[in-house]
Amino acid sequence: MKVAVLMGGWSAEREVSLTSGRGIAAACRSLGHDVTEIDMDRNVAAALTAAAPDVVFNALHGTPGEDGSIQGLMDILGLKYTHSGVTTSAIAIDKELTKRILAPHGIRLPVGRMVASESLFAGDPLPRPYVLKPVNEGSSVGVAIVTDASNYGNPIARAAVGPWQAFAELLAEPFIAGKELTVAVLGDEALAVTELQPVQGFYDYEAKYTDGLTRHICPAELPAAIEAACLRMALDAHRLLGCRGTSRSDFRWDPALGLDGLYLLEVNTQPGMTPLSLVPEQARYRGISYEALVQRLLDMAVAA
């Protein structure tokens, strides 16, 4: 097939997207496909038209590659593409919209609220410890955990480095103690549960994408009931949101609370495909090579 690999762009996750895209392009070539690599800029419509692909492998992360914008453009151009469509992408990138879809179906998510960043300098929106994050960024971009011991100040100091300097509004949620877990869904099957153990601090953007900063335990060493609940919730979320191809659901679990301590944090519709990424890792655990994973995603896109 003629495959265009769309990568890069101008989001905060540009470098990770480029790494994903290069790996995907190499896999496509090894599979015998005719590959065009496109580093997205404002002329992306012309680049896609000139490439005239049978299918686009969307390797973009963050906005506008993950929020429905590029999906709408490719729909207008009549192109087939990997991963989720316009509506699913627009909902899943927004953590509050995702909650409104999933919570009525019994999926437990942290109860938070949107706050103006300016208000943080007057006082805390929630009892400490709590989490602040942008509502529509992925991959732990701009996440801050505010604790009594944090060096942000109390109240948060205007000069303290944090997401309040980059975003006018933030989502505030209670901090959930315990383990960081994640589940990849491929097609209509949840693959595995991975526990993520940062070497220090928490599982932020740097820990996620820097070799050696996070230990991956796949499969996670969990009670059977917790493992089953993670797999079920990830698959339910994938279906309820209308995800296509693959998705990754991230969880926090407080072992002291048993099943009541398991919370889904977010659903990522454009999971990374780098050497450190979790979807390829779980696929390998299930006996699916990187090249086979890429081919499956291409096949699902063509069949959609």
Report on this structure.
- This protein has a 5-stranded antiparallel beta sheet with strand order 10-9-8-11-12.
- The radius of gyration is 19 Å and the shape is globular.
- Helix 1 (14-30) links the parallel strand 1 (2-7) and strand 2 (34-39).
- The model has no long low-confidence stretch (mean pLDDT 94).
- Helix 1 packs across helix 9.
- It is 31% helix and 23% strand.
- It is of the alpha+beta class and 304 residues long.
- It has 3 domains: 2-83, Rossmann fold; 92-109 and 177-303, ATP-grasp fold, B domain (D-amino Acid Aminotransferase, Chain A, domain 1, 2-Layer Sandwich); 113-174, Dna Ligase, domain 1.
